[in-house]
Amino acid sequence: MQNVKQKEETTYFLENDTLVVYLARELDHHNAEGIKENVDLSVISKGVKRVIFDFSKTVFMDSSGIGMIMGRQKIMESIDGKVFVRNMGKEIQRIFLISGLHKLVVKEQNLDEK
User: Fold this and answer.
1) Total domains present in the chain
2) Mean pLDDT of all residues in the chain?
3) Per-residue b/e over 39-72, b at no fewer than 16 CB within 10 Å?
4) Fewest CB atoms within 10 A around its CB: which of 42, 63, 104, 113?
5) Which residues of the chain fall short of a pLDDT of 70?
6) d(CA 48, CA 19)
């Protein structure tokens, strides 16, 4: 039997005015546009005021992912909302530091810090 690698998907959880986005293993140009559209739709149609990006499964992020998060931050700021990030591994933390994203979004406490 041949091993088939299943593509991990980004999943979304909406509770009241908070949208939690559980990002897939890779946040890149292949999925950043879809995430952007889903988050924006939730903000517009569901009245979301808090977006939390959960990086617990994410090991790679390219410039498309950086741009997607920056764009969501700008939108949330315009409606007095907030963007949060949590559960970032060392590589993702490094990308946030180098790109300056760490200055734009609020870091929530990681699961292993609780």
Assistant:
1) 1
2) 90
3) beebbeeeebebbbbbbeebeebeebbbebbbeb
4) 113
5) 1-8, 109-114
6) 7
Residue 79 falls inside a structural domain: yes
Q: CB of 38 within 8 A of CB of 72?
A: no
Tens-place pLDDT, residues 58-68: 999 999 999 99
Domain span holding position 99: 11-109
CB 17 within 8 A of CB 48: yes
Please state the pTM of the whole predicted model: 0.88
Q: Is residue 23 part of a domain?
A: yes
Q: How many CB atoms lie within 10 A of CB 77?
A: 12
pLDDT of 108 reads: 86
pLDDT confidence of residue 6: 41
